[in-house]
Amino acid sequence: xxxxxxxxxFPKVPCLLQYVSNGNHYGRIRVGGKxxxxxxxxxxxxxxxxxxxxxxxxxxxxxxxxxxxxFSEAVECFCGRRAP
Length: 84
Prior knowledge:
Elements: E1 7-10, E2 13-19, E3 25-31, E4 34-39, H1 45-63, H2 71-81
Antiparallel strand pairs: 1-2, 2-3, 3-4
């Protein structure tokens, strides 16, 4: 239980939290140095535990994707290759 009493944690599943007031479960994982907390949209502990594994794999796959360059970066790249 958190200090304010609103979040319940589970020692056997360290990345799983439950918001006490509505009973929803949340996944709290760290990917690429960032802390991500996402609702699993479940009130049942066993189902939330299964969805947590799916969330972890999904977030880690998204972190490994190559992000497209910003427009300003593309312009700089284009202007740098162009002959004056």
